[in-house]
Design brief:
It is built from 23 helices and no strands. It is mainly alpha-helical.
Length: 421
């Protein structure tokens, strides 16, 4: 059974909500959202700042219109010159992501601050997001939390949702499901699409509230209907497993495909899972492999493991374990800590490669430096056993403690057995 929300949650733990891409209010609430595109262009050309801002939004692709990122940036700049805070915040997001221009974190921060100075509180939430991830500034959860709270107090749904995210996962603050639920619920009441999805997950799992999978499904579907591809993946998985709704494999495939069409790598992987398992469709190992490859190329870590499995077992592709190993190596060299750990495992076990403890230690060390707890745990075990290194109880203890601090339960259990807190 798929743990539906964790398809998205594993990502959300790392990225939180990006207010520059998914801003606080639904665009349907914007006063010019129903104006035809040509009429909007006419008003913008005549000097309407609001029309220029809305035109930038349309050209950005947020309302399903044909995206033209450079033109979107041009109209956002015109709206920003006339004091529109939303346009400033959007320009910050585009600078941060390198959309319509070169990526520039410093410029992004300038635009976010200008948005905040023009009473657009999502600018504060976006500054918090930069500190949360250490983009253009030194990473600081404490500073991120402060900006999220300032934004939330000024009515920013993105700030409320991101603050709830920190409490939900205990990132930078003590984990508190009740506080998380309260903040995310406030954001959802303002129609923040990410908050709707997160609130639905919390209802479905009973986080900070009594479990209500049906209500959770409804909220997540509402978010999906507003274009949130992460919510689409969750809806697909819930339809597949019958969580909060009847089992609907046909609908599951349609939602997963829709998420994939929106570029969501987890959606692509889920399509692969559906074809591999024959859920509502005939089993098609070749189609599954193709979707896993697409998801892997789009950056989905679990899909990299799926591609490896296909090569190792010859599922949907000619058996070639060495190509599977190459997939892990490619991702590891890009900086993917999970692929680094997997590559370490292969060298540790001598699985499809010559066993090499030194090479295993190298990759585990790289993964551990990026916070990967399983790599830390294995490093502790290797130092304790003297595999590839001289035995050292002190070094082993250090790695076990670091792994435990990252939430590794087996490391915590081992330390407790040894009487170490």
């Amino acid at each position: 059974m798929r743990t539906f929300g964790f398809i998205a949650t594993a990502i959300s733990i790392l990225i939180a909500v990006n207010p520059s891409i998914a801003h606080a209010q639904s665009l349907r609430d914007r006063p010019l959202s129903d104006v035809p595109l040509e009429e909007l262009k006419r008003r913008a050309e005549e000097g309407s700042a609001a029309a220029a801002d809305e035109l930038g939004e349309r050209l950005f692709g947020s309302l399903g219109d044909i995206a033209d990122e450079k033109e979107a940036r041009r109209w956002f700049l015109r709206a920003a010159e006339k004091g529109i805070g939303h346009a400033m915040e959007r320009l910050g997001g585009m600078a941060r992501e390198g959309i319509g221009a070169d990526r520039d974190y410093k410029e992004a921060l300038v635009w976010y601050q200008r948005a905040a100075d023009h009473d657009y509180p999502d600018g504060l939430a976006s500054i918090g997001w930069m500190y949360f991830h250490g983009l253009g500034v030194e990473k600081s959860y404490e500073v991120a939390e402060r900006y999220y709270r300032l934004a939330a107090d000024k009515g920013s749904a993105a700030g409320m949702n991101n603050l709830g995210h920190m409490y939900r996962f205990g990132v930078g603050v003590d984990k508190d499901s009740v506080k998380a639920f309260e903040w995310i619920k406030r954001a959802a009441e303002l129609n923040n699409v990410w908050a709707l999805c997160n609130l639905g997950q919390m209802y479905a799992r009973g986080e900070g509230v009594d479990p209500d999978p049906a209500k959770g499904f409804g909220l997540i579907q509402e978010s999906a209907n507003q274009g949130n591809a992460t919510a689409m993946v969750d809806v697909a998985a819930m339809c597949l497993d019958g969580i909060g709704t009847e089992k609907k494999p046909d609908e599951a495939l349609q939602w997963a495909l829709k998420a994939a069409e929106n570029g969501h790598s987890s959606g692509m992987r889920l399509v692969g899972d559906i074809y591999r398992g024959g859920h509502g469709v005939p089993v098609d190992a070749q189609a599954a492999f193709r979707w896993y490859q697409r998801a892997s190329n789009a950056g989905d870590t679990d899909a990299v493991f799926a591609v490896f499995r296909c090569y190792e077992r010859g599922e949907g592709v000619e058996r070639d374990p060495e190509k599977g190993v190459a997939c892990f190596r490619q991702e590891a060299e890009k900086g993917n800590e999970h692929a680094m750990t997997a590559l370490g495992h292969l060298y540790y076990q001598g699985r499809h490669v010559t066993q090499n403890f030194s090479e295993a230690l190298k990759w585990y060390g790289k993964a551990a430096s990026k916070g990967e707890s399983q790599a830390m745990f294995v490093l502790g075990a290797m130092h304790a056993a003297g595999q590839g290194v001289n035995p050292s109880d002190d070094t082993a203890r250090m790695w076990f403690q670091r792994a435990a601090e990252q939430g590794h339960q087996e490391a915590a259990r081992l330390l407790k057995l040894r009487g170490i807190d």
